[in-house]
Amino acid sequence: MPLGRFGRDLETQLRDLDDAGTGKGAESVVVAVRPAQGGRGPRLLLDGQGDREFIRMNSNSYLGLTLDPELARAEESAAHAFGVGPGAVRFISGTYQPHVRLETALAQFHARPAAMVAGSAYTAVAGVLFSLSTPETALISDELNHNCIVNGMKLARAKLRKVYPHLNLQTLQSQLEECAGQCDSAIVITDGVFSMRGDHAPVDRILELVARYDGRFARGAVLIVDDSHGVGAFGATGRGTEEITGGRADVLVGTLGKAMGVNGGYICSDATVIRYLREKNPFYIYSNPIAPGEAAAALASLELIRGGARLLSHLREMTKRFRDGIKSLGYETIDGQHPVVPLLVRDTDRTRALVAFLRENGVLATGLNYPVVPKGEQLIRFQVSADHTASDIDEVLAVLARFRNR
To answer: Which residues are known catalytic residues?
Structure first.
């Protein structure tokens, strides 16, 4: 039957998004990828754009591994051996040797007793919050945490939900103090690297606060860190925000779909937590895992990262070149070392105009407007990758210079 009034209401809401300039609009469809050649990185071809080539500055593939032939060979070999899909959820018949090998390698990489692979980092976070919270739990979150944490907190069975201003540990301490007399447990959760800004949480200092209040809760206090943007791309050996700060989460969530270049998420912790999540986490129990081929490709990626000093060094060089370049052009950015390099525009219309100008000149970048970011903090999020060359970076900077001077 026709949707009638229901459908018309949805149409009205979509028009409101378009009028406000916050609608995401049509998705760009990649029809081909031209490999790196002649001192420049890969170029994308998009549907409807003919032979016009684009530099991608909006990819989470920070190490450029999505095109790596070793990963492709590993995925193909496992797909031939085990099939292209798991065929069932894990506890029925969907666990394959590549899943187990990958979990062992991830636990070793992060120096944890155990790890488990999830369909995505989004469902990993939601499942951890849902499964580890109770009706007597306090959940405490940074205000700029990723949407998966925001929605995970809504789903969780918590007594109190608190949000502290970005990186404001004084308020975090006050909230722990307030919750100590009302709840039997506390879960503090933060992004490692904040995906819109490229800055990072002081995991070491947050851990000190959580440890200080642990004894004030009957069931204890724990720290969960979602370091999806940090792992693989941040730190001298790619071990993320923990490596940068020296802090160590009680539960660490990562992704296989960003720096590792594949697909899926994972959780690292002690053996008791991981076994509990296998038994109680509905997002894990009732969802198919990633395909065996994806698990094999992720394992190959992890091995490359273990020996990837050259990749990480190049990524840091290109990130510094780009960040220094936009500063020299007079643009505002946020200092940091992460390959997310924000260009703060602070105006919705100008953000949209700059994104369009970049696209017209062969550069793909993401504009972030309210409500994705707070009003007054509208920005372009550039993401540097290890498959960018100095020539690529300079080409993008030249486009930004033309926009500034027009």
So the answer is: 195, 229, 258
